Amino acid sequence: MSTGPEHAGETDTDRVITVPNIISMIRLLLVPVVGYLILSGHFVAAFVVLVLAGFSDWLDGVIARRFHQTSKLGRALDPAADRLFIFVTLVGLCVQGIVPWWLLIAIAAKDLLVTACLPFMFRRGYPGFPVHVVGKSGTFALMYAFPLLLLAQIPGTPGEIAYVLGWSAALWGVFLYWCAGAIYLHQFRQVLTGTVGASGPGGTGSLPPNPPVAA
Fold first, then answer.
1. Burial class (CB in 10 A: 0-12, 13-18, 19+), 33
2. What predicted TM-score, i.e. pTM, was given to this entire model?
3. Is 56 helix (H, G, I), strand (E, B) or coil?
4. What SS3 state is found at 42?
C-alpha cells in the first residue's frame, strides 16, 4: 500500500519508465495469464508463472533500492500487482475446488475493510496507510502458498508435502494479513481522533504527523 504523507515523497525519481516499474508492469500482464492457466487446468504452468511472479516481486524491490529507482508509480504498481495476483489466483483455485471459498472471503474482507477507510484518509491529507512489515510478510506467505497448493495437485509424496506446506503458508498468511489489517485500523482510528503518532511506518503501526492538504 502507499505510504503516509511524510514518507510518500521519499522516492528517488519521478520517472515512469524505470527497470523496477517495467518489471511490475510485466507482472501485472501475467495476472490474466495465471488466471487462464488455473481455470484451464494447466496447474504446472500456472505454478511456474506464480514462482516467476514471486521472484520478480523480490527483484524489482532489490533493483529499486540498490539503484535508487524508487518512484511514486512503483509504490502503487507493486502492491497492486500483488493483490491482483492473490485475488485472481484465489478465484481460480476456488473455482477448481482446490481451496474453499472461505479463504477468498477471509482475504477479500480485510482488503475491503481497509479500502473503505481510504476516502476518510484522503480527506485528512493521507494518501494511504504506511506499508507495514506484517502486511508484507502476510502477502509474501500467500504469494508462496498458492504455487505450493497448485503443486499439491501432483500425485504422490511431492504433492502431499506441497499440500502441507501450502496450507501452512496460507493459514499463516491469512493470520498476518489480518494482523496488518488491525494495525491499519488502529492507524485509521488515530487519524479520526487526531492522535497520530510521530514514529512513522516502521514497526509500531503509527502514522507520521498530518501535513496540510496540498492545494
1. middle
2. 0.76
3. helix
4. coil
